[in-house]
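Database export, one record per block. Field names are fixed; values are copied verbatim from the stored entry.
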Amino acid sequence: MADQTIKGPASYFPSIEKKYGRPVAEWQQIVRDHPSRKHMELVAMLKNEHGLGHGHANAIVAHTLASTG
């Protein structure tokens, strides 16, 4: 049987959705719509403007940037 465990940034997604009440797709769109492509600027934006914790913001940004190139 294959290991079905989610690893990496996506492992945070269930707790992000539960804690902040928005689907991860919405958070990813916020990151995509922001003019910056710099990882730490995007993390700071999610923390300062939306109240996310550092780990959750980092997970969203890392996953979004990795999937959009």
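Remark 1: The two ends are 32 Å apart (CA to CA).
Remark 2: The mean pLDDT is 92.
End of record.
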